[in-house]
Amino acid sequence: MPTETEQQYTAWLLYCEAGSLQKTLNLWDKVGQSVGEMGVEFAGRLGKKPSDTTLERWSKKYHWVERREFKLKEDLEILLEKTRKIKHRIAETFERIINKRIKQLKDGEMVTTLDLKQAWEMLQVEIGKPTSRAELKSEPEQRLLTPEEKEHGKKLHEAVKWYLKQQRKNS
Question: With contact defined as beta carbons under 8 Å apart, do 39 and 33 qualify?
């Protein structure tokens, strides 16, 4: 905020972590004791602990509650975006593995269903989905597949079909 001092801003950051004014005051003295160099610097920016009424005045004047809610919302959006990116990378890795197995099959190399199953299980584990029927039964709700999941499922199905066809030819 424009007229907010460094100490007031640092106190707001502590408030964001603590969640209430009382917890902020309780945490004030503990900051810097066991957090290392960064904690000592943070404690230095906090300075001398203010009174309850001073902290309440700062909170009202600089809209700490609203700012904290906005910050939490913003932090959550950042985490969700990072999660989406991680899931996308996992899906890309799975796709590369499946494409490599398909190429191996087309080149006449041996690919077992175990290879495909391990790739599928890796994907399931990485995205937090069940890998066995026992785990599936305990899942509270099922949901529709995303277009990306459907596409990966199709590619896996094609690889299995191609493999089985090759097995029949070789028999």
Answer: yes
